[in-house]
From TrEMBL:
Residues 285-391 form the Glutamate synthase domain. This is Glutamate synthase domain-containing protein. One of its GO terms (biological process) is glutamate biosynthetic process. The lineage of its organism: Archaea, Methanobacteriati, Methanobacteriota, Stenosarchaea group, Methanomicrobia. It comes from Candidatus Methanophagaceae archaeon ANME-1 ERB6. Pfam families: Glu_synthase.
Length: 531
């Protein structure tokens, strides 16, 4: 398996001079002195550690993900269609139509209008900058929205008393925005907490002061296996975050570092957070404590660790009776994670789902509690959602109750915001304006639908970025998922199962146990024709 991008990646802003690169190294077959092109080696020569990360200049208005081909993804499966019969509805031409498909789900007892969760969006600027669209869009869609780690710790206006947070305007803003448009029934808002958050008392704060119902313990993510990271563009801010207990690099208290920063040798500091080392007994007690102080739901967010850690996570989650677990596969996105780690470390999503399904079946066989699960890691469309959920249903309903997305809703928010800005300036792409109009009221297809309920708030209190997020999550993903289920003649989400998908590669069949398409129903095929 060649890696032609080893020496040139769009995520790091690097490229090569020649197209016919060495398949082993990714270098140009002939590397010459008189070359102004910055490949990975060349840029690293000047900028060192900066090239480990997505382009620093884009921080706050970008997301990044792996561009490695893992040789197994959701395109290795196809959804099977049916001609006869219908499940979940009367098999009538007048009733068995896709608008009548029920795609509602429940994750850990929380109802969802669409089987989605959005997040987690923590202290990275891209989450803060796009929060209005993300929060209101998720609330309108009726899904779970997750506020990520370190929000209180990074909030400039946070107030701490004896080392514990007693007020965080940014956290308050995020929670209140969602709740203002939440119907109180479908979806909810969760707050994710890591080691620093626990030390700051964020759990107690959001449960007692902000009436949050869901606390999510952060054990990892698919994009990296180290702590959360952001960029800080001022020396004063870097010093403040170090005083709050964060790891900041290079050390802002070092006088030589201060001089280098003032001289422009580098333009941002890195703020890193710590990783936890969970223990079974301690975690069980932690979950009990969270419930005692008011958490209605306790969940885990974990990354794509090696198989023994996946098994251990599921065992501990079962013992603690958490409400659900989010497993995040390698290949998904980030606000800021090391590019080599995104590409080369951890378990890709399809492999990871196969592991957790194996674990769920073992727990079930042993008569133990099986938490609900949400799958994350590079999901962007309804066919991927369908395949992941169907794969998890061995006959008693799906283990995977929802799909968690972060990058895709962020893209919807950013695209909406940018095109609205272009419309205000009269600078929309000509082809786009000719097709869809030059006013957000026209080019957001769901605008009129939302106006019937929210009136003049649409485009004002409900920003166009929220309209865009809702349009993507419900009008595209929700309706698209309904169509796929109708094609399978399954009119309730929990009816799709492993028999509704087929593998298109030997590797897919070997990893997941889903038969290849040419192997399906061979005996029945002959019986039908010979009976």
């Amino acid at each position: 398996m060649t890696d032609i991008y080893a020496n040139a990646r769009s995520t790091t802003g690097t490229s090569v001079r020649r197209r016919d690169v060495s398949t082993l190294s990714g270098m140009c077959p002939i590397c010459v002195k008189e070359c102004t092109v910055l490949c990975e080696i060349g840029k690293s020569t000047f900028r060192g550690r900066e090239v480990l990360y997505p382009e620093p200049e884009q921080f706050g208005w970008s997301t990044a993900a792996s561009n490695k081909d893992y040789r197994l993804d959701w395109s290795d499966f196809n959804i099977l269609a049916r001609l006869r019969g219908a499940e979940g509805i009367e098999p009538s031409p007048d009733l068995a139509v896709f608008p009548n498909v029920n795609i509602e789900s429940k994750i850990g007892g929380i109802p969802l209008k669409v089987p989605l969760a959005s997040g987690a969006y923590g202290s990275t600027d891209v989450g803060r900058n796009n929060w209005d669209g993300l929060a209101i869009g998720a609330a309108l869609t009726g899904i779970v929205l997750i506020i990520g780690e370190n929000v209180c710790g990074v909030d400039k206006e946070s107030v701490f008393t004896n080392g514990k947070v007693t007020k965080s305007p940014e956290m308050e803003r995020r929670v209140k925005l969602f709740k203002e448009y939440w119907d109180g029934s479908y979806g909810d808002i969760a707050v994710q907490t890591n080691v620093e958050d626990q030390r700051f008392g964020v759990d107690e704060y959001v449960l007692s002061k902000l009436d949050v119902n869901i606390v999510e313990r952060k054990w990892g993510q698919g994009a990296k296996a180290i702590g959360g990271e952001i960029r800080v563009s001022s020396l004063e801010r870097a010093l403040e975050l170090k005083k709050r207990g964060y790891i900041v690099q290079p050390d802002p208290e070092d006088l030589a570092v201060q001089e280098a920063f003032k001289d422009g040798l580098f333009k941002t500091f890195e703020r890193h957070s710590r990783v936890g080392f969970p223990e079974e007994r301690g975690f069980v007690e932690d979950v009990e404590w969270l419930r005692n102080i008011g958490a209605r739901y306790v969940t885990i967010k974990t990354g794509a660790y090696r198989p023994v850690d996946v098994a251990w996570t599921m065992k501990v989650a079962s013992e603690a009776k958490v409400d659900y677990i989010t497993f995040d596969g390698a290949g998904g996105g980030t606000g800021m994670s090391p590019v080599p780690m995104m590409n080369e470390m951890s378990t890709p999503t399809v492999y990871l789902e196969a592991q957790i399904l194996k674990g769920a079946r073992i727990l079930e066989r042993e008569g133990k509690y099986v938490p609900d699960m949400s799958m994350a890691g590079g999901f962007i469309n309804e066919t991927q959602m369908y395949k992941a959920i169907a794969m998890s249903n061995f006959g008693n309903g799906p283990f995977i109750k929802s799909i968690t997305m972060a990058r895709a809703p962020l893209t919807a928010a950013m695209k909406s915001l940018y095109f609205t800005e272009l419309a205000e300036k009269g600078r929309l792409p000509r082809d786009f304006a000719n097709k869809y109009g030059n006013d957000p009221k026209k080019f957001f297809i769901a605008a009129e639908e939302l106006k019937t309920e929210y009136g003049s708030k649409v485009g004002n209190e409900i920003p166009w970025s929220a309209v865009g997020v809702y349009t993507y999550l419900y009008e595209r993903l929700g309706i698209g998922l309904k169509q796929m289920l109708a094609g399978s003649r399954k009119f309730k989400l929990d009816l799709i199962d492993r028999g509704d998908i087929a593998s298109l590669s030997k590797l897919a069949a070997e990893v997941t146990g889903i038969p290849m398409l040419h192997e399906l129903e061979e005996e029945l095929f002959e019986v039908i024709l010979t009976s």
